[in-house]
Amino acid sequence: MEISSEDLELCASILEDEITVVQSVYPESSRVNQEGLTGESPSDVSIVLEIPVDLGETREVKIIDDGTIAASSAAVSPGTSATNEEGNTVTQSSQNNITTTKTATNPDPHSTISHAQDTQQTATLQLSSLPPIIVSLQLPPAYPLHAPPEILSLHSTHAWLSPSLVSCLRAKVFSLWDECRASGEGVLWRLVQYVRNGDFIPELSLLDDTAGAASTDTTITTAVPLRIPHAAPQLLAPRLQAYDAHLASSLFDLKTFTCAICLSPHKGSACIALSCAHVFCKDCLREFWGTCIAEGEVERVMCPDEECVKGGRKAREEEVRSVVLDERVVERWKWIRQKIELEKDPTTVHCPMEWCQAPVRRPRAVKEEEEESQWDRLRTCQSCQYSFCVLCKRTWHGPLTVCPPSVTMPFVLEYMSAGADSPKRREIERRLGKNNIERLVARYQEEELNKKWIDQSTMACPGCEVKVEKSLGECQSVCPFRAAGERLRPGSPVDR
Ligand SMILES: [Zn+2]
Ligand SMILES: [Zn+2]
Ligand SMILES: [Zn+2]
Ligand SMILES: [Zn+2]
Ligand SMILES: [Zn+2]
């Protein structure tokens, strides 16, 4: 569809207006890269919205175990399953395996007892706010009337929203845009209100509707407690509590702080309190951390306070995200950090749980010559107890089920294309286990050989196109061709 230049101008002016409104009402919530607006030719505008969730008044928040961790360790603990169910496990496709895991994780929604059967846990808190949702948007020139905003990332601080809820919320942002567009408006203001007022809470089914009545209610009423499914309630609860206490007790945004870097007074809304409680203005930290990341010195991305530098207290991901406000810089920081971690201990992988990401080392030093078992693929994260397969990064699927080839293919090919004894091969061997990778390569080569053999020595049965050995000439099963009694001599041309 052709978009006229008048249309683009209209889009730009709507966008300019909505940015002005959001920034003047919630200066602390948004950071805009306006080049696209002011530049000669129209281009993308990027904006980061950091929107805290206001629950109105103090209400009960239950964090319930979503069963992810329990399922992963349940899959590990019975050491007998490895041999006993051999037949079952081997034939089970990996896809099947994943669905089973999911059904097994279904938590009982009516369970209100803490530490119920298994390792299911529930934490109950009294909160008046939830940590911010951080949305990074890219707005093309045809936004808002002819193009949707592109969501570069959507995160909840402390990852209090599980990955599946985050995807729901992403979808909501899109439908909000569609609604707003119909009335000739942009989505930014609506989105900020939607998150800030907690309008998304009932829509993501985060209300504890054990009473059964709330399901049709679209407003967030105070009588109903919140119910947040999470993989590790015991880890999340103190973080939510601390955030809420911080916000409530200090009214941080309204206070004035003297930044220890620029030595000037700043409103709390322009500052960040790091988890060590030191406060800096965001502009100073952005410049400092930004420079460190640009120069690859990610080890220095930490609180600049002398004591914290001595203690080596690294910045957390949400701190970097909230300060840096540029998705590409955050990604670069994560990438270099991972690289350094890997150089320190080549066996390190990161916990695949988005909210955890802790480095996970190989459990025991396996001698190179020692026979590694299929159990060598198992890793258990020390900080969240999640058990996963080091090769495919999925919930531990037992020693006998093979990883989905679509996931393992890229590094098998990477491994094979690196020369024998090359540093690249060593690195992959140390990280994933020598025998693990060799088994995958062997399986890959065997499949390639099979394919070759099939291509060379078989032909399609002229009747039903089933592949048959060339010497047989037609398939062994019953097919219309064979049924018709027209026997075919090997190699003779077929007229059809
Ligand atoms: Zn400063
Ligand atoms: Zn500090
Ligand atoms: Zn973990
Ligand atoms: Zn696997
Ligand atoms: Zn046939």
From TrEMBL:
The keyword Cytoplasm is annotated on this UniProt entry: no
Membrane topology: Single-pass membrane protein
Gene Ontology biological process: protein ubiquitination
Domain RING-type, residue spans: 255-496, 259-304
GO cellular component: cytoplasm; organelle membrane
GO molecular-function terms, A-Z: ubiquitin protein ligase activity; zinc ion binding
Superkingdom assignment: Eukaryota
Protein name: RBR-type E3 ubiquitin transferase
Listed Pfam families: IBR, RWD
Chain intervals for the UniProt region annotation (Disordered): 75-109
Keyword Repeat (UniProt): yes
Chief location category: membrane
Pathway per the UniProt entry: Protein modification; protein ubiquitination
Enzyme Commission no: 2.3.2.31
The reaction(s) this protein catalyses: [E2 ubiquitin-conjugating enzyme]-S-ubiquitinyl-L-cysteine + [acceptor protein]-L-lysine = [E2 ubiquitin-conjugating enzyme]-L-cysteine + [acceptor protein]-N(6)-ubiquitinyl-L-lysine
Protein location: Membrane
Group of enzyme by EC: transferase
Keywords for this protein: Membrane, Metal-binding, Repeat, Transferase, Transmembrane, Transmembrane helix, Ubl conjugation pathway, Zinc, Zinc-finger
InterPro entries found in the cross-reference section: E3_UB_ligase_RBR, IBR_dom, RWD_dom, TRIAD_supradom, UBQ-conjugating_enzyme/RWD, Znf_RING, Znf_RING/FYVE/PHD, Znf_RING_CS
